[in-house]
């Protein structure tokens, strides 16, 4: 689904005569569907365990099924630990995972065009380690340094390329540890995504160290919306009208 954001609403208010000094970029958001590769992993180094998207050789994987744990230090052997847990609650099918925002100022909705990507929103805690083994709480997901382009054909997004920094933050204040951020990268190259966070930050806890790894790849599908082309044309016309008004 593609839609005008609040920034485009501000632009419309300018056209109606509201006294704002200058327009914000006309941003349009589209939904992003993610599917994870079977071999994707989440690792808890404190407990020396990991889970795998497809469950590996001993677990079923899939929605609502156990996908770990295995002892990480014994790889490539898959040695189970515990009675089973569900780190990837939806399995490989993350579904409509989030939104990508593009600057649509120069987009007409006609033919093949390219739009700069301005932001992305995905809550990875819904799909990976939403309740980790040590802190027993979810984490927040924040993106920064988002760059890239979306290819748009006749108003529909067909291809995405982006690079970004992602920070996962656990709230461990209940354990006296405060907020624990872990920094990694999230990239999409020709609709193939790669999430990698190899615990550059570590935190002491008792006799061990809290550190995690997110290492998951997969395919990304921009969700088309037929009305996007018409929306872009309306936006382009509004921008032209605004320019004419400013020139008077």
Give a structural overview.
The chain is globular. The two termini are 37 Å apart. The chain is mainly beta. Helix 1 packs across helix 2. It has a domain at 27-37 and 92-224. The protein has helices spanning 6-15, 228-247; strands spanning 2-4, 27-36, 41-44, 49-52, 68-71, 80-85, 93-103, 112-122, 139-153, 156-172, 178-189, 192-197, 203-205, 208-210, 212-222. The strands form two sheets. An eight-stranded antiparallel barrel has the order 2-7-8-9-10-11-12-15. A two-stranded antiparallel ribbon has the order 13-14.
List the helices and strands and how they pair.
Blueprint: E1 2-4, H1 6-15, E2 27-36, E3 41-44, E4 49-52, E5 68-71, E6 80-85, E7 93-103, E8 112-122, E9 139-153, E10 156-172, E11 178-189, E12 192-197, E13 203-205, E14 208-210, E15 212-222, H2 228-247
Antiparallel strand pairs: 1-2, 2-7, 2-15, 3-4, 3-15, 4-5, 5-6, 7-8, 8-9, 9-10, 10-11, 11-12, 12-15, 13-14
Helix pairs in contact: 1-2
> What is the tally of helical segments?
2
Number of strands: 15
User: Which class do the helix and strand fractions yield?
Assistant: mainly beta
State the shape: globular
Helix content: 10-25%
Compact overview of the structure:
The protein has 248 residues and is mainly beta. The chain has helices at residues 6-15, 228-247, and strands at 2-4, 27-36, 41-44, 49-52, 68-71, 80-85, 93-103, 112-122, 139-153, 156-172, 178-189, 192-197, 203-205, 208-210, 212-222.
């Amino acid at each position: 689904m593609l839609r005008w954001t609040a920034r485009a609403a501000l632009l419309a208010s300018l056209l109606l005569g509201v006294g704002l000094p200058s327009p914000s970029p006309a941003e349009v958001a589209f939904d992003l569907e993610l599917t994870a590769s079977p071999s994707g992993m989440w690792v808890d180094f404190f407990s020396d365990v990991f889970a795998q998207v497809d469950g590996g050789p001993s677990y079923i994987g899939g929605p609502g099924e156990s996908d770990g744990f295995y002892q990480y230090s014994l790889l490539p052997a898959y040695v189970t630990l515990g009675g089973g847990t569900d780190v990837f609650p939806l399995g490989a099918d993350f579904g409509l995972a989030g939104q990508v925002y593009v600057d649509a100022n120069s987009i007409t909705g006609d033919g093949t065009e390219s739009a700069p990507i301005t932001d992305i929103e995905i809550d990875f805690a819904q799909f990976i380690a939403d309740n980790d083994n040590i802190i027993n709480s979810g984490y927040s997901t924040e993106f920064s340094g988002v760059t890239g382009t979306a290819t748009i054909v006749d108003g529909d997004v067909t291809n995405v390329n982006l690079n970004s920094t992602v920070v996962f933050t656990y709230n461990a204040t209940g354990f006296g540890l405060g907020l624990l951020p872990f920094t990694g990268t999230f990239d999409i190259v020709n609709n193939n995504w790669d999430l990698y966070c190899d615990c550059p930050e570590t935190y002491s806890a008792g006799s061990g160290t809290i550190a995690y790894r997110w290492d998951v790849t997969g395919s990304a599908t921009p969700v088309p919306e037929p009305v996007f082309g018409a929306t872009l044309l309306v936006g382009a016309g509004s921008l032209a009208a605004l320019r004419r008004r400013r020139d008077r």
